[in-house]
Amino acid sequence: MARILVGYERGDNLGHYRRLAPVAEALAAQGHQVTLFLRNPHDCRQQITRNPLPFIQSPDLVAPDPADREPKRMGSYSDIMVYGGFGSLETLFTATLAWRTIFDRLRPDLIVCDHSPLLCFAAYGRLPVVQVGDGFTIPPAQGEAFPGFQPERRPTVPVERIVAVMNEVQQRLGGPRVPGVTAPLRTAGRLICTLQGFDPYRSTRVDPVIGPTEGLQAPMPLPREPRVFAYLGLRHRVTAKLLAALKDCRLPVEAYVRGMTAEAARKFQRPGLVFFKTPQPMDQVLARASLVIHHGGSGMALACSSAGRPQIALPIHEENLLNARTLERSGIGGMIGQKDLEADGGARIAAFEADPRRRERAGAVAAEIVEAGPFRPLDHILPACHAALGSA
């Protein structure tokens, strides 16, 4: 049986782990030797305890201060690559060397990954890679450049600069020349685990869109009494504004906030506002919620949409913004920003929760998702892994 690395190098929440965990478990059940690589094992510790596969920490050699990175605005996925280390010879060289050291130690026959451009570059010409991600984390790579996040948007950093840095690293480490910025992401498998409507590249997508690996819920009737569920990250500045608005509104609230401290919990505590210390079973919290507030992550948006829940997105980066716009177009969601929260955030949240049109539309979207299924993504992912192993 094969040695397989499964994991992700970018992303701060649990969505990437939850997407890949069923794949890792299925490969292990087939007898393969599976090792996970995780960007944030501390956040995943509860899930790791339930499904104890060997794991390592993903190398993270990117400058911790965002001010030391560029660009500030993202035009396409190549800008994300720059933000993640591809714009600096020193960063890309050390990150590539770190990954190659791991390859030499673990000697994988195959890599299955999500949102891992540095790893894909380190494996380029050396190891087969199957990418398993949502629409945003696997951009179309059939062209010489990645498509813009919006039709009018272009990369803010010239792709020629990125290619020059990649080829300098390859020359120093004895790797094959990279012909273009998209080449490292043209991997043996590219499987898009989302719904067609949630793929930001649906107009240019040629890769198979196979449905989510986990997280979809059965449609649920809305509860009789209003209740908000919030899933957020405390380190984002706008989160404090949102929590202040939830404190001011009169709705019952349940919240899981990554990074929440006892001091912060006391600051925002009030009767009817409950903070969970650990992630809760999604089906249970959604069953109690009449409105969900989150940053706009793909997994959370899909889970809420399939359950039939109106949503408010609090975007913190480009992927969140694209997902929030999808929710707006579908009629079940909306965005709220820092200025809105400072003005009358509590009243806005209450008005959104009480909107009967969004409630009705949320139920209709959940029924549409059921009609489009069932989805069996592992029926596509496992054969792709076997094919990559066979051609290695």
Explain this structure.
- With 392 residues, the protein is an alpha/beta fold.
- It contains 14 helices and twelve strands.
- The strands form two sheets. It has a six-stranded parallel sheet, with helices on both faces. A six-stranded parallel sheet has the order 9-8-7-10-11-12, sandwiched between helices.
- The protein is globular.
**Uncertain parts:** none
Measure the end-to-end span: 14 Å
Q: What amount of the residues lies in strands?
A: 5-15%
Global mean pLDDT: 91
Order of helices and strands: EHEHEHHEHEHEEHEHEHEHEHEHHH
Label the structural class: alpha/beta
CA-based shape:
globular
Number of distinct beta strands: 12
Number of helices: 14
Helix content: 40-55%
Oligomer: single chain
Supply Rg.
21 Å
Report the biggest beta sheet as strand number plus sense, adding barrel if it closes: 6 strands, parallel
**Sequence of strands across the biggest β-sheet:** 3-2-1-4-5-6
List its salient traits.
single chain; 392 residues; alpha/beta; six-stranded parallel beta sheet; 12 strands
Topology readout:
Elements (H helix, E strand, L loop, with lengths): L2 E6 L6 H15 L3 E6 L6 H6 L4 E3 L19 H10 L2 H18 L3 E5 L2 H7 L5 E5 L25 H15 L15 E4 L35 E6 L3 H12 L4 E6 L3 H7 L4 E4 L5 H7 L2 E4 L3 H10 L3 E3 L4 H13 L2 E3 L2 H16 L2 H17 L5 H14 L1
Parallel strand pairs: 1-2, 1-4, 2-3, 4-5, 5-6, 7-8, 7-10, 8-9, 10-11, 11-12
In short:
With 392 residues, the protein is α/β, with parallel strands linked by helices. Helix content is 43%, strand content 14%. The model has no long low-confidence stretch (mean pLDDT 91).
